[in-house]
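REVIEWER CHECKLIST
Item 1: Sequence provided? yes
Item 2: Single chain? yes
Item 3: Sequence as submitted:
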Amino acid sequence: MAQFTDAQFQQLIQAMRRFGRAGSFAHCTARFKGERDAAVVEEFVTAISVYKEIESITDADAVKGLQLLFEGYAANWWIGVKHTITTFDAAIQLIKKTFAPPLPDWRIFASIVETKQQQNEPTDYFVC
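Item 4: Structure as written out by the authors:
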């Protein structure tokens, strides 16, 4: 049995990637249906970003392959906007802007003041 150092193993992996097929989202299991929920959007974006990096998917291939990951409303939305997207980062920013826009200040303040401290809840826990 052959044993490799970490450096040799990394070189082997890089060589295999160079001679292997180009990476794609074909086997990615992450899917997005167009939920307007910041947590769901962030989970999807994180999953596809990590997958893109691990599979060494180029920006151009990632933008083309994103359509495979959208379902329902998100698939229809992507058909309408894909011609305006040229980079993976631009696609990520548009997904976030469309499906998880930042809350306006007044809404954040309203959610803070509507939460009341419970009788047996320590103040430091409530503030956190």
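Item 5: Key structural point noted by reviewer: The radius of gyration is 21 Å.
Item 6: Recommendation: ____
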